[in-house]
């Protein structure tokens, strides 16, 4: 069976027809303008969208139901997009950050289902920390920079039994300062949610089944933070830990001046507050025992570091 290596207006029209969507609905599904759809379909095989839109179309077909894929094959003479049936493997692109040694995983650029309404959004490739920043990680930053340690550390030192627990009592500015020192960034709300839900828009990191036992939330009665590698059964499609529960995570996305988004819920949260699509925010100066963070990095920047081309 032939594979479509490059999308043209012909295949685009076939996909819209197979999905049984109007121009407006199809444009909204892809996150592009109606004008683009009309232009592509009018020019047929004489037009090829730019690479970012090629990737969006690949993802749209991959995420389609079996009936839609069958209709698409019928309309295109049996063609399908290469890799359309591929399911993203868990943790297949893990690396060690060359400056901090932290484990990160690559999230390839594609559209994903965002927010409670599952709006399709495009996010370019990036890497995200597999684990929350721990007390031991943060201690390296404090030692290297002289940054003020969290208020619950005695004499500037964290309790040894909490070395692998997420650092807490940090403001957004503390988290952003750590990320800059580490040669990373804080993830945007879109990057964080995509890493939590995958491209298929699962309700929870592990799927659609509400299972509080897979994360550290109030219903479990743990009553404190847990180690950042504790809940293996609750990892996301990319193998990322603690994207439900344990601690709220500071994000780079500003909601209003002086306020930043938070995601993921915490050990203090009810399970329904830990759903990755839910919105939450706080003042940048907020500091609590249930709030921490993880870091991200643009794919191109990290890969230059890994390959020594900077």
Automatic annotation (TrEMBL):
<dbReference type="InterPro" id="IPR042095">
    <property type="entry name" value="SUMF_sf"/>
</dbReference>
<dbReference type="InterPro" id="IPR051043">
    <property type="entry name" value="Sulfatase_Mod_Factor_Kinase"/>
</dbReference>
<dbReference type="InterPro" id="IPR016187">
    <property type="entry name" value="CTDL_fold"/>
</dbReference>
<dbReference type="InterPro" id="IPR010982">
    <property type="entry name" value="Lambda_DNA-bd_dom_sf"/>
</dbReference>
<dbReference type="Pfam" id="PF03781">
    <property type="entry name" value="FGE-sulfatase"/>
</dbReference>
<protein>
    <submittedName>
        <fullName>SUMF1/EgtB/PvdO family nonheme iron enzyme</fullName>
    </submittedName>
</protein>
<dbReference type="InterPro" id="IPR001387">
    <property type="entry name" value="Cro/C1-type_HTH"/>
</dbReference>
<dbReference type="InterPro" id="IPR005532">
    <property type="entry name" value="SUMF_dom"/>
</dbReference>
<feature type="domain" description="HTH cro/C1-type">
    <location>
        <begin position="12"/>
        <end position="41"/>
    </location>
</feature>
<dbReference type="Pfam" id="PF01381">
    <property type="entry name" value="HTH_3"/>
</dbReference>
């Amino acid at each position: 069976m032939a594979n479509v290596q490059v999308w043209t207006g012909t295949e685009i029209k076939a996909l819209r027809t197979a999905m049984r969507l109007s121009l407006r609905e199809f444009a909204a599904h892809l996150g592009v303008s109606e004008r683009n759809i009309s232009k592509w379909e009018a020019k047929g095989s004489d037009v090829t969208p730019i690479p970012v839109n090629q990737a969006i179309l690949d993802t749209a077909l991959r995420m389609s139901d079996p009936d839609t894929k069958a209709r698409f094959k019928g309309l295109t003479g049996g063609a399908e997009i290469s890799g359309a049936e591929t399911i993203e493997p868990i943790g297949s692109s893990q690396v060690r950050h060359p400056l901090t040694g932290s484990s990160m995983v690559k999230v390839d650029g594609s559209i994903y289902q965002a927010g409670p309404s599952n709006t399709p959004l495009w996010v370019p490739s990036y890497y995200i920390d597999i684990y929350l920043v721990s007390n031991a990680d943060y201690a390296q930053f404090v030692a290297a920079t002289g940054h003020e340690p969290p208020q619950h550390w005695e004499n500037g030192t964290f309790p040894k039994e909490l070395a692998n627990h997420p650092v807490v009592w940090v403001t957004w500015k503390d988290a952003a300062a750590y990320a800059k020192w580490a040669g990373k960034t804080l993830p945007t709300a879109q990057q964080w949610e995509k890493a939590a839900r995958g491209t298929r828009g699962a309700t929870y990191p592990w799927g659609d089944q509400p299972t509080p036992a897979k994360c550290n939330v109030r219903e479990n009665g743990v009553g404190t933070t847990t180690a950042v590698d504790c809940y293996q059964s609750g990892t996301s499609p990319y193998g990322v830990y603690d994207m439900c529960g344990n601690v709220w995570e500071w994000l780079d996305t500003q909601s209003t001046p002086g306020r930043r988004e938070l995601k993921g819920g915490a050990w203090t949260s009810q399970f329904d507050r830990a759903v990755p699509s839910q919105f939450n925010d706080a003042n940048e100066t907020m500091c609590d025992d249930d709030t921490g963070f993880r870091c991200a990095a643009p794919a191109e920047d990290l890969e230059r570091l890994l390959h020594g081309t900077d």
